[in-house]
Every structure is written in structure tokens, then in C-alpha cells.
Amino acid sequence: MLAVVIVPMLARDPTRIDDVLARRLIPPLGRDAHGGWHLLGTDRFGRDLIVRMLLAGRLSLLVGIVGSVLSGALGTLAGAAAGWRGGTVDRLVMGIADVLLALPRLVLLLVGVALWEPGLATMLVVLVATGWMGVARLVRAEVIAVRARPFVPAAQALGASPARMLFRHVLPNAVGPAIVATTLGVGNAILLESGLSFLGLGIQPPAPSWGNMISGGRDLLVVAPWVALAPGVALVLTVLATTLIGDAARDRLAGERASSS
Amino acid sequence: MNSATTASSLQGIRALLRTLLLYWCVLSMTFVLLRLAPGDPATFLLPPGATAAEAQRLRATLGLDAPVGVQYARWLGATLRGDLGTSFAEGRPVRAVIADALPVSLALGGVSLVLSFLAGAAIGIVQAARRGSRTDLALTVASVVLASSPAYWLGLGAIACFTYVASMLDMPLWMRLPAVGMTTPGVELTGMAHLADLARHSILPVTLLAGIGAAGVARYVRTGALDLIGSDWIRTARAKGLADRMVMRRHLLANLRGPLVTLFALALPGTVAGSVFVETIFGWPGMGRVMVTSIVARDYPVVLGCAAAYAAIVILANLAAELLLPWTDPRVRE
User: Fold this and answer.
1) What is the distance between the alpha carbons of residues B281 and B289, in angstroms, rounded to a whole number?
2) Considering Cα of A208, then A212, then A216, then A221, what sign does the dihedral take?
3) CA dihedral in degrees (B189, B191, B196, B197; nearest 10)?
4) For residues B287 and B98, is the Cβ–Cβ distance under 8 A?
């Protein structure tokens, strides 16, 4: 079932630009004046919706996955540094996290997007900058717990360097929850990206994003409801799929923990 | 006893100081970020043909020609006096702009959140009680799908259904709900008529926000209740012959109340901020709308003011969650 949802998202068509008046607002399964057939119809500029939807999906998945993987990595590093070093580093990192957590993420995103030109790069930077705190807290707690386990002084006594300690011994034991949180964050990141694009502060048209496609269909609700419907369905299915994957990862982690302890 | 009281009040003072420090950090961060932003607000306010000298004069009037440090000091002093500055775009105090918008968002978010917790808790308990049944499965699927849906898209769907389709199909008048605004424009209503008008305009946005929230709460309650159902004291309560309904109400809900109150306080700021989409769709003049328009116009004082207001909500909500904990969970009181 997951494959059904995801595989069509990964299969891509080449870009096709049909800027022909005759092709405007064709309903789904309709034929245009040139006899071309459109599975999901066309929008007001005569652009084929399924092609745009798939292109937008590529962008959304890119933003969602890269955004949350990078913020997960940043959070893991920050959390590991804070938990391992303690003291000033710990206070500094957690202080920054507290300050960032004192504003709802959406507000931070809005402020961040206001700073630079809206677009793909801005979106990624802002998502990463506002998304690492949760993972950092998780990893910090795990690292502190792992540090107290007997194999840590054992490895240190064998002469392992601090970096080796951290990357070979501590992090592999602490990284499970971070991976789960990152997976669950993908859907959230996709929703935030599309939301900002819907408000006109994210991916800028003519580049397709599910958010700005829905926004483009907003005043066509009566004339051509399919323009807003199709990207919305794609968005929901994608977020749903990432949520299910994240849930599965969490259950599996919980199962492993239960059986190993 | 006495020393214990002193210790706890000391702890309280320390927590308060930490909160204030945190608040100052947040405010300073937004200030620094926004002042370092590219894009000169003066160019947005001037007519296209304005000369460089005019632009310079306007910048001087707005205090934008001073170094960032001086601007910060001025801003901090003013903020401490409760003066949030003047909106570049609207020319009126930021405090007035926020005072108009904040109640709208708080009311919209607060009412929706209360409804979502009531509905979500009820649904979650029902699901846990009938675990594995078709009802449970259907509700789980519905809540997962709802939680994955963007509010603005559902909002568009709701508008399409209840305004355009309802009037196209000649459905009864009460089913044709207004799509835009908080009240009917151009009509001065008072008393009950005003309230009824407001309620009619609220149905779609509040139901939408509450529905999405309830999906999340139901999932949380279901998981929590299932964990508890496996515990010994639930088995004892059942073994001594208590009716299922009684077990659910007196034992399960009482144990879930604490986490739910905490969750409520922590969810409030996010819901208030998240209503930006619903406000945009339904044209409600709340904080989210103000924030988006002021970002587009590079109206720095308003953006800063909004961020300050949001941060205040978050910090107050966190404080409330901490203070409410002993009330909901007797074990913490000692």
C-alpha cells in the first residue's frame, strides 16, 4: 500500500509547457482542442495538472526529506555535543533551543521567510534552522543516559579518542529516537512548505508546488474545482504515507527496545 | 515547613527570572533578525518617483538611519515602557494593531482547542474501549487522514460545499454558511442578532480547526487509554464489579486528565499560530493575517510586535502548564 502511494510520486514525466489558450481549464479526463488527453485536466494557463502535480511532488518531497534529514542531522550533532560535553556547551545549545522553541515554528518560519527572497533555498534553510530542537533534546537525553553505561569508561580505558567514542560507541546507541523523530518530521515539513507556498511566501510560481497550485485554484472553486482538488489529494496522500512510515519506525524501535531490555 | 516554603518560593523566583531572561532573548533575536534583513522599508512607503533626499528624510523620521545598536537600545527602552512602536504601513501604534487582532486569534484558537479536546477525548476513549472493532478502525483512519490534511485545503473544500454547492442545490438556508469574514458586512447588528451572526460565521472555521485538533487528541487519548487499560488497577476495578462506563469515567479519564491539561496548555500557542491558514481562507482579521500582510509590506514593528505577542503566549502557556500540574495530579502536590 505504501508503495502504491509512493511509487507514482517517484515516477517523473519530463517538463512539458503547453501555453495554449485552447487548453485552458479542461476538466479531468477531458480532451483539448488539439485532441490531447489530460488525465486530471488543465489549469487556467492550459498546463496539464498531472504533470505539474508530479513536478510539484518532486519539489515537495525534496524539501520535506532534505529539510528534515538536515535538521535531524543538525539536531543529532547539537544534542550529542550538549549531552557529551555538558557544562557551557550544554547550556549554550539548550539555551538556543529554548529561545527557538519559545516561538511557534510557523511564526519562526514566517519571520525567516520574510528575511530572504522566498524560494527553495530559503525554505530549506529556514526549515532546518527551526526544526532541529526536538531532535537535539531527544539525542541529548539519550547521550546522557548512554554515557552512564559501563561500556563507556571501558572503551575510554582502552584509549578511544573522544571523537571515536562519540561516533562509534555513544551515537549508535542514542540515534534511534532521532531517526524516528526525523521520519515523523518529513510530513510536517511537507505540510509547512505547502502552507507557506499557499500563503505566497514559499515556492514562487511559476515553479509548481502543491501549496501554490491549491492557491491558484482558490478562486476557481466553482468553475474548476479539480484545479485545487488534485494537488490537495496528492499532498494528503504523501503526508499520510510519511506518517505511516514514521509510525512503523517508531513501533519497531519500541519493539526492539522492549526485547533488548 | 518554613524552610521548605522559602526554598519553593526561591525556586519560583528563579523560574520567573529564567522565564524573563528567555523572553528577552527571544525578543532580541527577532529584533536582530529583522533589522539585518535585506530590503529597505522606506522604499515600500514612498511613491515610485520619490527622490533620494525624500527617502533619507523618511528613514530619519522612522529612526532607520541610526546604527543597529542605537536602534536596539531605543527599541528596548520603548518596549520596557510598553510602547511597541508605530506601524510603518498603517501609521497607528503597533499595540493597537495587535490589540485588534489578538482577541480574534485567541478566541478562534481557544474555542477550537477546547472543542477539539472535548471531542478528541471522547473519541479516543470510545476507540480504546472498543479496541480492534470496526468503529475503532474507521475512527483511526479518519483521524490519521484528518491529521495529514492541510487546514487551508479542507477550508476550501468546506467553502465549496457549504456556500457554492449549497446554494446551487437550493439547500435550506441554514446550510448555506457564509464563507468570508467574522460578521455580515454593512449590517449593524446588536445583542443577540450580532452573536447569532458571529456564530454563523464561526461555524466553518471553528469546526475545521477543532476537527483537525480532535484528530490529534483522539490518537493521543487512544494510545494513553490503551496503556492504562493494561494496568493492574483497571483489572481490579473491573474485578470488583464496576461497570465499564464507570471504569472509563472515574479511573481512565482521571488518570489522563493531567497529561491532557498539560497538552492543552502546550498546544494553545501552536493552534493560535496555526489559525493563520484558516484566517486567510475565511478572511478573519486575526494575528496570522496581520503577520502575513506585515511581512509582505516589510512592516518591521508589526512583525516584531506579533513575534513578541506569540512568544508571550508560549511562555505564559508553559508557565500555566507547570502551575496546573499539581492541580491535575495530586501526586505532584507534596
Assistant:
1) 10
2) positive
3) 20
4) yes
Tell me the pLDDT band of A9, cut-offs 50, 70 and 90: very low
The answer to whether the CB of A144 falls within 8 A of the CB of A81 is no
How far is A198 from chain B, CA to nearest CA, in Å? 8
Helix, strand, or coil here: B47?
coil
Are the CB atoms for A189 and A174 separated by under 8 Å?
no
Q: What is the ipTM of this complex?
A: 0.75
Measured in Å, how far apart are chain A's first and last C-alpha atoms?
32
Comparing CA positions, the residue from B111, B84, B108, B88 lying closest to residue B98 is B84
> What DSSP string runs through A58-79?
HHHHHHHHHHHHHHHHHHHHHH
State how far residue B171 is from chain A, nearest Cα, in angstroms. 17
Please report, for residues A18, B39, B239, B245, the alpha-carbon distance to residue B234 in angstroms, rounded to integers and kept in the order given. 65, 62, 8, 12
- B149:A99 CB<8 A: no
For A188-243, the pLDDT digits (tens) are 888 888 888 888 887 777 777 888 888 877 777 766 677 778 888 888 888 888 88
- Give residue for cell 480574534: B104
A239: cell is: 503526508
Q: Which chain A positions have a beta carbon within 8 Å of B33's beta carbon?
A: 111-112, 115
Q: Is B269 on the interface with A (CB under 8 A)?
A: yes
Phi and psi dihedrals of B82, rounded to 5?
85, 15
Instruction: Note the pLDDT tens digit of each residue in B178-228.
Output: 666 666 665 666 666 777 777 777 888 888 888 888 888 888 888 888 888
Helices (H), A116-225: 120-131, 133-147, 151-157, 162-164, 171-174, 176-198, 210-216
**How many C-beta atoms surround the C-beta of residue B330 within 10 A?**
10
Contact of B212 with B149, CB cutoff 8 Å:
yes
Q: What share of chain A is helix, strand, coil (3-state, %, to 5)?
A: 75, 0, 25
Distances (CA, A) of A188 to A108, A154, B66, B126: 15, 41, 40, 27
Between B208 and A27, name the one with better pLDDT. Answer: B208
- pLDDT tens track for A92-117: 888 888 888 888 888 888 877 777 77
What kind and span of H or E run contains B206? helix B191-229
The reply to whether A2 touches chain B by the CB within 8 Å rule is no
For chain B, first and last CA: distance in Å?
A: 12
pLDDT at A14: 39
- Here the cell at position A103 is 516561538
Contacts of A47 (CB under 8 A, 6+ apart): A17, A18, A19, A23
At position B260, the amino acid (one-letter code) is L
Q: What residues contact A60, with CB distance under 8 A and at least 6 apart?
A: A190, A193, A194, A209, A210, A235, A238
Percentage of chain B lying above the pLDDT 70 cut: 78
